[in-house]
Structures are given as structure tokens and as C-alpha cells.
Amino acid sequence: MSTPTDTGVEACSFPCQEQLLSQRSTASSGGAAEKNVVESMRTAPVFHCRLCNRLLDNRGLLLTQIPICNRFTTSKEPVERHDLHLDQCARCQLIQLCEPLPVDKVMPRLPWIKYREPEGHLDSVVDRLLSAHCSKAGSSFGVGPFDQPLLCRLEQRGLSSLVLETRPPQSDGGARFPYLETWQLGLNAAILAGIADTRGKADIVSCRYLLEHCHDPLGALRALRQLVSVDGVLIVEVPDSTKFLAARDFSFIWEEHISYFVESTLRLLAAKAGYAVLDLHRYPGDLEDALVAVLRPSASESGADAAQTCSSQSDLFRSYVSSLPQTRDFVRSSVAAAAGPSGDGVALFGIGHQAVMFVNAFDLSKYVAAAVDDDPNKCGYFPPGLRVPVIPSQALLQDNRIQTCLLAVAPGIEHKIRDKLAPLAERGVQFHSIFAGVPGSLLSRSSSWR
Ligand SMILES: [Zn+2]
Q1: Cα separation values, 159 from 141, 152, 225, 264, 409, Å
Q2: pLDDT tens-digit map of 349-403
Q3: What is the distance in A from the centroid of ligand 1 to the CA of 275?
Q4: Which CATH number fits the domain 122-319, given the four candidates 3.90.45.10, 3.40.50.150, 1.20.1050.40, 3.40.190.10?
Q5: How far, in Å, from the CA of 96 to the mean position of ligand 1?
Q6: Would the pTM count as exceeding 0.85?
Q7: Which of 2-6, 314-318, 394-398 comes out lowest in average pLDDT?
Q8: How far away, in angstroms, is 265 Cα from ligand 1 center?
Q9: Architecture field, domain 325-449
Q10: How far apart are CA 360 and CA 54, in angstroms?
Q11: How far is the CA of 33 from the centre of ligand 1 (A)?
């Protein structure tokens, strides 16, 4: 962790190549990632855009010394940290991590690390599919852990469905629990060719919430063509980054998300991979919208050139990057004030990867006196980079030190948490969402937030 300055600001928005060089890892993270790193000079690694292959120019944002967000520990021990460098390609505008962490570093060490993705819009997705582009579809495949809810709905409408085992086999002796960081490796030409040989093709192939984890998203989309029948479609669903970029919310940066798509870059990637975009529908979410693309493989695998640019996206990212020092200063001073003279007045409720990133990106660990989550799996574990173990909300209710409770929960369930914590409100505890742009956010008074 970087050392706090008097102002609380670590201006880490750029360029800072030396820092990157000193921290960079040399371990393997899979073929696609290796291809992305070109050792063109003896000391200076350069990174190429995952979409259009242009050289990334190091004008993005650097978060230094961030622990891996799933690395919960049973004792207060130092955890391995790494730098995250987020950049935007000057040509195709894809926002992306310059260098993903190696897969084996990110792989969970605990069996209960799992994530949830939105499902409420899937009835509408199925209606749109079956009433238009897929009215004659008879079969469906899923390729990842979030496809079953869509496939269930397709099955109810008479299609056959199968979630394919695309994950590469792991030989580890049980100390690691492969998840999305490993799953994305399976979306390659060789593995999917083998599956197509044995399982055939389907009229609808679903790939939900996996493309943004891919070290080689272009290769993944190209490989997925092999599973799609003639006249079939590939459904790709990803989170849209526009809202959190516009809100200047830095808790959404995550070492497991390699690409941060918006509508234009998802379209470009699909075109580059040789697909026609039949439909691209946006389903609104409080913090992120969901983008659902219906893609049909074109006759040729060689896709369109992704040379077009979109200046509004470029401006959005530039504003995001430039607002980091000011946002960080504001958050640190606000949380320090809330912690009070004894430094133990702040609780953080909802210990997911965004909460972990929020604390570490803004160097807030010393101000968080209670980390609260009612997931029994997390209870007693130290969240990465925090100095206190997770306690349940019942324990928080007994903690009279707490004067401010920061909420890192989805806005849609915030009212339930507030109800659960009503006794705190009754004794004057303040509640603020950590998420920028949410009513009652800690950041609502920041001049960097509009
Ligand atoms: Zn590019």
C-alpha cells in the first residue's frame, strides 16, 4: 500500500512506467495474455490492445499495491499486492487492463468465492430471441457458470439445453478453487473444437458474464463460432461500464475484469471476430446496465477492421482518470472525519470485491473498524487489505463505537439492510453508499461527482 501523504492524495493517474516495470509479473497467465505482451525492448514491456492490436500508450490510470479481491485470510497477515493499470486504446477505445494478473495468482483459495449476475431481465431476453432472430431455434448451449438461468427459460419454451464443460481440467490438489479466471481460458479454439466434435452445434449459444474476464476476448469470440449452428446465434452478455465511468466510481475496477466494455466496443469486438450484430439491447441496472448482444457468425472468419473511433467514450475515460486524485482525496478525508478522533467510528457493510477495491484503492483500511457481512462463509475471515475480520450484522448492532456505516450493497437491497440495521439509525449512526451516483452516496458531496 502506498504511504498516505498529508493531503491523502496519491496522484496515480499517470504516466508511471517505472513503477509498472518494477512491479510487473513474469509468470504465465495463458497463451492469449502472453501474446498481448510484446517484449520489444529489453526493459520496457509494451502492451497491445486486445481488440485492435494497437500499442497502448500508458495514459490511463494506475492503482498501486492492490491485493487480490478474493484473497480472504484466516489471520491478519500481509497479503500479496499488485498494481492495476487500466488504459483505453486510442484507436478502438476499448478500456482494458494492460496486463492481467496470472491466472494462478487470481484463482480463489477458498471454495465459496462465487459471484452473482443479474437474471431479472432474462424473460425479456428470451421473448426477444424467440420472437425474432431465433424463432426456429431448437437447441441451446451454455459455456459458462451464468448461462443456466437463460437455458432454463429456453427449455421451458421447448428448446433442448446443455451447459458445456468448457473449463480446462485442473491438476491442483484441492488447495485452489478454479473459477472465472480459469473458465475464461476454456474459450479457445482447441477446446471448443473438441467440444463441437462430441456435442455438435446449437442454435443458441449463450456466453453470459465471461467475455469481460477473457484475457483474449477476440480469440474467445472467434472460437465460439465453432459451437453455433448454421443460422444460429451467439448471445453475449456483459456489464456496460458507462454508468460507473460517468459516476467516477473506482470500486468497479477489478483484477478479474480484463475488458470494460461499452456498447461501441462490444460492437467493434464482435465485428472484428467475424459476427454480424443482429441485436444489442441494454437492460438498465442501478450501477451497471447489462448489454445483451445477439451475434450471427458471418461467412468469413476475418472480421471488420476496428479502426473507427468514438470521441465521447474517449472523453468519458479521460474524465474518469483525471478525477481519481480529487475523488481519492475527498473519500479519504470524509472517511477519516467519520472515523473520529479515536479512528474507530466507521463500519463497512457488504464485503464483496467492490468494497475490497474501495478500501484498498483509497487506502482506507486504518479507518474501517468493522467489516460486516451476513454471508456465513465470510464470517471470521480478514478481507484482503483490511485489518479486521468479518462480523455479522448482529455483532455490528452491539458495537457502540460505530458512528458511520458505509454500505457496499446493491442499491436495490439497500432498504433491507437499513431495516436490519434500524437500531443503529435510531442512535444516530449515519449511512452512506460507497457507490458514486447512488442517492445518499458518500460521494454525493464531492465536487468531482456530478
Ligand atoms: Zn484497440
Answers
A1: 10, 9, 20, 31, 36
A2: 999 999 999 999 999 999 999 999 999 999 999 999 999 999 999 999 999 999 9
A3: 17
A4: 3.40.50.150
A5: 9
A6: yes
A7: 2-6
A8: 9
A9: 3-Layer(aba) Sandwich (3.40)
A10: 31
A11: 15
